Amino acid sequence: MKIASAIAAFLTAAVAFSAGAQVDPEKVKAELRKKVPEAQVDSVRKTPYGGLFEVVVGGEIFYTDASASFLVLGSVVDLKTKENVTEQRMRQLNKVDFSALPFDSAVKIVRGNGSRRIAIFADPNCGYCKRFERDLLGVSDITVYLFLYPILSPDSMEKSKAVWCSADRGKAWIDMMVNNVAPTAETKCATPIDKVLAFGQQKRVQGTPTIFFENGERVPGAMSITDFEKKLAEAKAPARVSSR
């Protein structure tokens, strides 16, 4: 009952605000920082619905009112279009400029004419990554930029180094992930793995696999091949990087 009352009060305040004066989102942000100082508020913006303010904290979306009296957790759904507004907004926030990815730090794997491109952040000890790699074997005309992202264990780092130091990095990766054959290369060569880890943390890559498509959209986690092929068809990059 307390939760229901709080939501009702919040909605009443939001409706009242929607008919009132405009409020500067920066003032809402400042108020939130006073009331929830432990939260790192990245941004606050006025939404076009319900008098709500969108609050982004650590890549997650919440909502508040003009006086930052309430914080709403969960998704906003447009009942007219049946669209999950929060989910759509999250996709926008998580997009990257595909052409700006550090391709020189990736293992490049080409199948067929390589005309369709994706980037994957993967850990060698990630079971979902292994399953997805097996599925990818059946996908033609694709270029995969694999970013070694060892976040699961110290052993992940050693395996990643061995892949990068291999004469044929793509083959070493596939052998390990699909055929369970560990790479045998010495791990003393210079690797870009620390650079990839820093880049991934900056872009909030928090799990593996994380897949980026040419249109910048990201998908955290493995996908079915049906959904993957659909995403490939939808992805249309405005610019292409030079071949490497």
Summarize the structure.
With 244 residues, the chain is of the alpha+beta class. Helix content is 36%, strand content 20%.
Describe what this molecule looks like in 3D.
The structure is a single chain. By secondary structure, this protein is α+β, with helices and mostly antiparallel strands. The protein folds into 2 domains: 2-93, Roll (Nuclear Transport Factor 2, Chain: A); 98-234, Glutaredoxin (3-Layer(aba) Sandwich), CATH 3.40.30. It is 36% helix and 20% strand. It is built from 8 helices and 11 strands. It has helices at 2-18, 25-35, 85-93, 127-136, 154-164, 169-179, 193-202, 225-234, and strands at residues 41-46, 53-57, 60-64, 71-72, 77-78, 83-84, 107-111, 116-122, 142-148, 210-213, 218-220. It has a 5-stranded mixed β-sheet with strand order 7-9-8-10-11, covered by helices on one side. A hairpin with a 6-residue loop joins strand 1 (41-46) and strand 2 (53-57). The longest helix is centred in the N-terminal third of the chain and has 17 residues, at 2-18. It starts with a helix and ends in a 10-residue tail after the last helix. The relative contact order is 0.12. Mean pLDDT is 87; it is low at 16-20 and 239-244.
